[in-house]
Amino acid sequence: MRALKSRALLFSLVGSAVLTTFSIAALPFSRGLFRVPQTPFDASDAASTPPAYVLLQRASSLIPQGMSVVIRSEPPDANSDSNLHRFGVALLPGRKIRPAALWGVPTSPDVTRDAEYEIVLGRAPSHAPGRLLLEIPEGTVWRRER
Q: What letter does residue 115 receive in the DSSP assignment?
């Protein structure tokens, strides 16, 4: 009876050791295990998500409530712009987010023409859409001129 209990305890310990080893092996050491993430999306496979999050968080303090905003990528990419629109709705509450693209299809210029602010993910646009409010490696924020 005592040998049976000892054997059951041994199997439990070995099983726990195997599970612990697999868990440690699955940790993302290459992504900086001991580094504090800048965004909740740093471990995401979507490369554009962390920069978009940083840019929109920084822009939220510059754009007053109730203002209209268009968020787009540079160079233009309808799929990225569709995602940026959804991200902007989530991260810029109280602002009117105008879509540069929806469902991977660019919108008409009439939709974005009256936006008071423009957020550009990526490099700065070749022509300035207005007064530059913020320039960081992730992108730029502009107050459009009327």
A: -
Q: Is 141 helix (H, G, I), strand (E, B) or coil?
A: strand
What is the rounded CA–CA span in Å between residue 137 and residue 124? 10
Residue of 28, 69, 29, 74 lying closest to 51 (CA atoms): 74
8-state DSSP, 127: S
**Rounded to the nearest 10 degrees, what angle do helices 78-91 and 49-60 cross at?**
40
- What lies within 8 Å, CB to CB, of 76 at 6+ separation is 100, 106
Burial (0-12, 13-18, 19+ Cβ within 10 Å), 94: exposed
Q: Which residue is listed with tokens 């203002």?
A: 67
Start-to-end CA distance of the chain, whole Å, equals: 88
Q: For 24-38, 99-113, 124-138, which range has the lowest pLDDT when averaged over its residues? A: 24-38
% of residues, the chain, pLDDT over 70: 82
According to DSSP, residue 108 is labeled P
* 53-100 pLDDT, tens digit each: 889 999 999 999 999 999 999 888 899 999 899 989 988 999 999 998
